[in-house]
Amino acid sequence: MAHLVDKLAVVTGATGGVGSKICEELVKNGLRVAGLGRRQHKLDALTAKLGDKFLAIKCDLSQEDEILSAFQLIDEKCRGVHTMINCAGVLFSNAILESKTEDLRNTLDINVLAPAICTREAVKSMRKYNIKGHIINMNSAAGHNAEVIKAPVGLYCASKYAVTGMTASLKNELFNTGIKITSISPTGIATDMIRRAGVPDNLIPHIAILYPQDVADAVIYALRQPDHVLVSIQHYNVSHATLDPITRELALVRCTRVQVHQQLATTRTNQLDKKKATRRNFEAIDPASFAPVDIRRIQHLICILYFSRLLGTVSTYTRNKSNLAITELMITSPEKEVILPSQAKTR
């Protein structure tokens, strides 16, 4: 990521399990990081570990004045935000109908209002310094399929649906500004947040299929993409019972993610069409590049390509450890106007 070396990334929730791992990976890849968090001892530990590449800022994201003060400090010390990663989040293990009003407000303050305020302030900074930046919202699979989640986390689901809608709206608001926005939607992650929600340690291996490193890897992957690639990353539970029939059918089509990305990285415009994006074409790939096919475990890689004249969407399904990662890439020609999916339908 040479184009990001010494660029500034702001990470909220830096003292959490996922946020701290993201900070570490960003610094490892050459970025400077301003980490916002509430726990001073965790910030001190990150500072000791990451050195002068890390700016620790104690901040309660439920308080707007503290957020504004943090961004003022960032502007004074670092000048210009290149990447904004909204990673902070809270989860209360209570049904909506049984929740305390205080918990309701806290969930919305941290999971919805804070990302909106931080994004607003980050975009102000990007525009002030003429930066073609990147906003990354840490969403959740709970923000897409609440109806299948039986745990009493209804308000958390609602807050993440709000993030889904906010990200979609920001895509329109940031259209043609040069500022990208990415949504990353993991399932359960083995962090203290799950434990604080009341999940026993002995159940975590059966529920949390991701680890902080998996999510940090997704962030780095999104940041590495060329400017004309827009990314939405989702991680879903892949137990056979949770896969719908369409997903199981898609599992019959195979292609390695590396080969797809190499193809996309070497072409500035779409060179593939529907005729080429066939099952036979993908199955011509050397079988040695796959893990043994096992539909029940989804141990192989699959890819479906959809293309229009100026816009292509790639959905890549890949089994990573015990999760199924779904990556949607919108590939556009940088020399031509970007057509949003909603616009493409009307043209």
From TrEMBL:
GO molecular function terms attached to this record: oxidoreductase activity, acting on the CH-OH group of donors, NAD or NADP as acceptor
Oxidoreductase is among the record's keywords: yes
Statement: the UniProt record of this protein carries the keyword DNA-binding: no
Record keywords, A-Z: Oxidoreductase
Source organism superkingdom: Eukaryota
Pfam family, one: adh_short
Family: Belongs to the short-chain dehydrogenases/reductases (SDR) family.
Name of the featured protein: Uncharacterized protein
